[in-house]
Each structure stands twice: as structure tokens, then as C-alpha cells.
Amino acid sequence: MGPKERVLNVLSDNPVDKTPVTSFTQVGIVEAMQKVGAPWPEAHSDPNKMATLGASLYKLIGLEAIRVPFCLTVEAEAIGCKVDMGKIDRQPSIRAHAFESPSEVRIDPGWLDRGRVPVVLKAIELLKEEGLDAPLIVGITGPFTLSGHLIGTEKLVRSIKVEPQNIEKLLDTVVEANISYCAKIAEAGADIITVNEPTASPDLLNPLDFKYLVKPRLQTLANSIKIKKVLHICGSALPIVGDMAACGYDAISIEDKVDITKAKEAISKSVGKPSFPRMTFGGPVKVKIAGNVSTAKTLFMGKPEEVKAEALQALKAGVDFLAPACGLAPPTPLANVRAMVEARDEFFAR
């Protein structure tokens, strides 16, 4: 069984020969950039370099993922935010927000033709044409996080209590932009879309606000996506894991702060049974869990044997996808990511 079939089978709740070792989050690391000649920041704006870097960890070490882009600023920039494009070892970041207040936000349909959106779509097409035997995964910025980019995350969170109706309208506007972008991504040839919602984490947002404000928009987005889909939320997400699982995604991606066993228990309690019907394409599917080898500590700063030990722990806990807990830090040693792949192979060779 090849990597692409393996990953897609798990997302479809079909049998596989072994747990996939993949990444639904960003995969650009400096060592790989240098080996394949596709460094940041050029790889953020050049479709050929984006495609090359996106496939680098699959080609170099067998990570079962081709993943683009490498930041969460593509949509915000196209809508009007000013972006600092970063350096070879630093991701792009928002330099200036596009709007002053929630009520000012307007997103015209032409945004999909601006900025780096066409770059991402072209990179997807190039990778699709190459026909590699690995899933083509494309990350987008979720509605809450993108709303924060547009007006400022602190202002967004504060405005939930001050002007809730305007925040509701803002999120509805942004999720429509998400839906349009996801349709373009699917049309270009992606296999999987990862919806990244880092600022919807309980570390920043009250779990009740997630449940009643963010969750309905994530469900709307999930129901619109016609290909496989994964929801990633950073931080100590255990209080919202049950709600994440009920959003309609084929898998949820969680950080090392969340215990896999406790996450499974929370999902079971939330949905009432292991498999439950969802108003989305493909019928009833069991929600899978991806994770959760520490990116900030083990993969970034640890030794290969420490990576293997943590990966083994996740596999023993029954994770459905062995994966980094979050996006890889650019200075992450290639040997450490390779160790994660080797840990999976050694586990199933026993």
C-alpha cells in the first residue's frame, strides 16, 4: 500500500497496513530548503519553489505528505493585510491589519486573484501533474483566525462581548471567503484541506465561545468542502476536542499538550458512539486523530532517539496518524523528522 492510499484510507475509515506518518501542518524546514534549492522567502511567492519545498520531506525522508503553503498569511494578504515575508528561518507574519473594526470588513470576490492565492493554486497544479504517491495537502486559515488577521486578534476576542452581532457577521463573511478558496483548492487538484485555527484554542478563546461562535462556522465550512478535510487547533485543546470532533472533519490534529487517550474519551462522550452521521460528503465516518509529536520541544530541540520515544508513545496510545503536533519549526533537524518516520516503520516491523 502506497503513502497516498494509506492516508486517504484512514480518512475514509478503511483498513490500512500501518499507521500513516504524515503532516497536516507546515513542512518547510531550512535543511530541506537548502537541499532542494527552494528557500524561504522565495518559496512563499514562486509556485515552482513552493511545489519543490512542499514535496521535499516526502522525497528526502519518506514523510507521507506533500504540503503547501508554509504560512497562514496567504488569504489575509490577498484581502488587504500588509505582510512581512520573513526570512529563511522565519515564517511570514501580519504587519498591518486590513480593517479597523468588525463592521468595516468587506471581501470582494476578486481577492482570489490577488497576492499569493494564484501562487498556491499553481503550486497545487504542478504537484498534481508530477503525480507523486503521497497525499497533496493544502492548508488554509480558519474563519476565526483569519478574522483576527483582518482586524487584530486581540480586538476580535474583545469584541465578542462588546459587539457580538458584528462578530457574527464578520465570521459569516469570512467563512464565505474560506468556502470560495477551498473550492479553488479542490479544483486545482488537492487531496486534503487542513483548516488551521490556532487562535480558536482554549489558550486564547473561551471554550463556550468556541462552541457557540466558531464551531457553527467550522461546520458550515466542512459541509462545503468536497474533498478530505482535517481541522487543526493548537495548544491545550482538550476542553474543545469533543466540539472539534463534531465539526464535520475527517480528522482532527492536536498538539502534544493534549493526551491522546483523554482526547479519545472526550470524542466518545461528545458524539455518543465511535461513528456518527455528519452532514457532509461521504456519509458516516469515524473522526480520526492526528498527532502529536512535540514540535517546539522534541522535533525542534530533541535528539532522534527522543523523537522515536515520543512517536512510539503516540503509536501505543492509538493515534490514527503519527504526525508533528503543529507546524514544523524552520530550524528543525531533518534527522529528527526522519526519526519520526523510522519510529513508525520500526513499530510495525515488530
From TrEMBL:
Q: What keywords are annotated for this sequence in UniProt? A: Metal-binding, Methanogenesis, Methyltransferase, Transferase, Zinc
**Main enzyme class:** transferase
EC number(s) per UniProt? 2.1.1.-
Q: Does the keyword Zinc apply?
A: yes
Membrane-crossing ranges are none
GO molecular function of the protein, one example? uroporphyrinogen decarboxylase activity
- Which Pfam families has this protein been placed in? URO-D
Biological process terms from the Gene Ontology for this record are: methanogenesis; methylation; one-carbon metabolic process; porphyrin-containing compound biosynthetic process
InterPro entries recorded = Methanogen_methyltrans, Mtase_MtaA_CmuA, UROD/MetE-like_sf, Uroporphyrinogen_deCOase
- Reply yes or no: does the keyword Transmembrane apply: no
Stretches assigned to the Uroporphyrinogen decarboxylase (URO-D) domain: 3-346
- Requisite cofactors: Zn(2+)
- Tell me what this protein is called: MtaA/CmuA family methyltransferase
